[in-house]
Design goal:
heterodimer; A: alpha+beta; four-stranded antiparallel sheet; elongated; B: mainly alpha; 15 helices; about 0% strand; globular
């Protein structure tokens, strides 16, 4: 199995290449400066929703525990206070949203994955290709797909940035 | 109507937007920056004076002890609502026209909330102890009262500013990467290293874009839940009090619609000159301005409905304190403020409904300023006039603003514009990747 990175100048050419690759069941990934619908479909779904939910849920539980604790520990608690009071709702509500936001954003950073500066071939090739409005296309192919790859190169006019690396 | 009105190709548009910050190196930016900086310095002088001498430098008295500080706070929080509304509501409802204006509207939100967040701290009296409202373990067993509306306020504003910041920053990541590459190409080492760190190694591959889209939708959903609740909670600062003029169940929806009304007015105040000076007329078109104008009219009419209901409640309750407060508002010593509020906030939406961005752009700008003035006065009427004359005639007392009250108002306005001008200088005011996407979609159609 070999890898190839192409630089494609036009979106229509990219879509053409993606369709051919999809037809031949070849795995691919696209780097673009804006989301391209066809390329998004190839990514496997991640569990981001779980991060958002767990963030909200755990912070909500913690906040509720804090609210209950403050009923007992609050220094002005001289006459007793109800355990479950509507007055606790607004504070818990907004902090649940805050927890979901922060943990969800962490999930995004984790899965994306971000904070990997200049650590892969995408990063190295990015500037020249995408700043001018182009796209990077990476795919893995086998020997039997060689003719298809040639067809794609001819049809799209794509430039080969790197080929045959493992 | 076309959302974009430009003959530029996608790549030309991208280059133009990457260059747009350089247009700030001109007379208008420098002049506005100088004025804003001067006002900000005056603001900081006021803060120093406040810290050294205490809240007595303001015109507050025994009866009116929130006055300008909380009026400014509520006004700034309100202005901060339009950005999240544009980002969250319009993203969820798939409104394409938001793409041109969401970045600057979100920046406006962040800066407005930062300005708002200063005032509750400044008016504490002992501002250096503001952290006591945060629940943290201390050795003197002090816990904030989580059922207090002031603690709700702190948590709501903190949550709102963090969510807005995260939403804005995640939306900015792809453009930060482009800015990094551009500054690297131009051999600008300082800028490129800053943009490089800020872009977090974004590459824009399929997985990142998919996650970016999912995260934006989740944050938008959370943003909607928060945008409605934050100003509702701010309104509860008043509504849970027993003061006439404050103790009203209409306050939460009334405050939220008022916030969106003033927020959209500020969006127009910023966008109309910005699109002209940054030559963005093809991207922020009259269509966008008319969309904002329509939302402004709708929210203005909802505010008008709030006024009607509030006055009906006062009359229908038959409560002598409420009736007296209303009489004082309408015919008391500062009645002109009340009538000015009604004229501005009831009249301006009606005038706005007759305007059109193609023909009345200058008027739209002038009226957007007046809406902001009207909404500040509305907050003044609620915060100050309501408590000037409450249950006990013996304690009635009018508020008289001092020079420091005005310094804090205009100083915070200067601070707001200073930060917004810095935003225009260093970050793209229009989302480049969303414009590319929009241009690509329009070509496909």
């Amino acid at each position: 199995m070999k890898c190839m990175i192409l630089q494609v100048s036009h979106e229509s050419a990219l879509r053409l290449a993606l369709r051919s690759l999809k037809k031949a069941s070849i795995k691919y990934s696209v780097a673009s400066s804006y989301p391209i619908e066809e390329s998004l479909n190839e990514s496997s779904p991640q569990k981001l929703s779980v991060w958002f939910f767990m963030g909200g849920f755990l912070v909500g539980v913690m906040m509720y525990a804090l609210a209950l604790y403050s009923v007992f520990d609050y220094p002005l608690n001289i006459a007793g206070q109800p355990l479950h009071h509507p007055g606790f709702v607004p504070a818990i509500y907004v902090v649940v949203i805050l927890g979901a936001t922060l943990v969800g954003a962490l999930g995004f950073f984790f899965y994306a994955p971000l904070l990997h500066y200049d650590s892969n071939r995408w990063q190295e090739k990015w500037g020249g290709a995408l700043l001018e409005g182009g796209f990077l296309l990476r795919f893995e192919y086998e020997e039997k797909h060689k003719s298809l790859v040639d067809e794609i190169l001819e049809a799209t006019g794509a430039g080969v940035l790197e080929r045959d690396y493992d | 109507m076309k959302v974009l009105n430009t003959s530029l190709s996608r790549t030309e548009m991208k280059s133009k937007l990457l260059e747009v910050n350089s247009l700030t190196q001109s007379w208008w930016w420098r002049s506005l920056f100088a004025v804003s900086l001067a006002l900000t310095l005056i603001f900081f002088f006021g803060i120093w004076k406040l810290f050294t001498e205490g809240v007595g430098i303001w015109g507050i008295n025994r009866q009116v002890n929130w006055a300008f500080a909380i009026t400014n706070f509520v006004w700034w929080v309100g202005i901060g609502h339009a950005g999240t509304f544009i980002s969250a509501f319009l993203l969820m409802s798939r409104q394409k026209w938001r793409a041109s204006i969401n970045r600057s509207a979100e920046a406006m939100t962040l800066i407005a909330i930062a300005c708002a967040g200063l005032f509750p701290i400044l008016h504490l009296g002992r501002p250096l102890l503001f952290f006591w409202v945060i629940p943290y373990p201390t050795n003197f067993g002090m816990w904030p009262q989580l059922r207090s509306s002031l603690v709700w306020d702190v948590l709501a504003i903190t949550s709102y500013i963090i969510l807005s910041l995260v939403f804005w920053y995640i939306g900015l990541l792809p453009d930060l990467r482009s800015l990094y590459e551009k500054s690297k190409k131009l051999s600008q080492p300082l800028r490129s290293s800053i943009y490089r760190v800020l872009s977090l190694g974004w590459v824009g591959d399929s997985l990142q874009w998919k996650l970016h889209s999912q995260t934006s939708m989740f944050l938008a959903a959370l943003g909607i839940a928060l945008v409605v609740s934050v100003h509702s909670i701010v309104s509860l600062d008043f509504a849970i009090g027993v003061e006439p003029g404050w103790h009203s169940t209409i306050f939460p929806p009334f405050f939220v619609t008022g916030a969106i009304f003033s927020g959209f007015a500020m969006v127009l105040t910023l966008l109309i000159p910005m699109r002209h000076w940054l030559k963005l007329e093809g991207l922020i078109t009259c269509y966008h301005l008319n969309c904002i104008r329509k939302l402004l009219v709708v929210s203005g009419l909802m505010v008008a409905y709030g006024y009607i209901v509030e006055h009906f409640f006062i009359w229908y309750s038959g409560h002598s304190g409420e009736l007296n407060m209303q009489a004082q508002r309408a015919f008391g010593d500062q009645a002109w403020i009340y009538w000015l509020m009604l004229i501005l906030n009831l009249g301006l939406p009606l005038i706005y409904s007759r305007l059109n961005a193609e023909r009345h752009l200058k008027w739209m700008f002038v009226l957007s300023l007046l809406v902001n003035v009207g909404m500040w006065i509305e907050r003044y009427v609620i915060v100050v006039l309501s408590v000037s004359a409450d249950f006990l005639p013996a304690s009635w007392m009018n508020f008289k603003a001092t020079i420091y009250d005005w310094i804090f108002l205009f100083g915070s306005i200067g601070f707001f514009f200073l930060l917004f001008l810095l935003f225009l200088r260093f970050l793209p005011p229009v989302s480049i990747w969303e414009m590319e996407e929009l241009q690509s979609e329009s070509h496909q159609r």
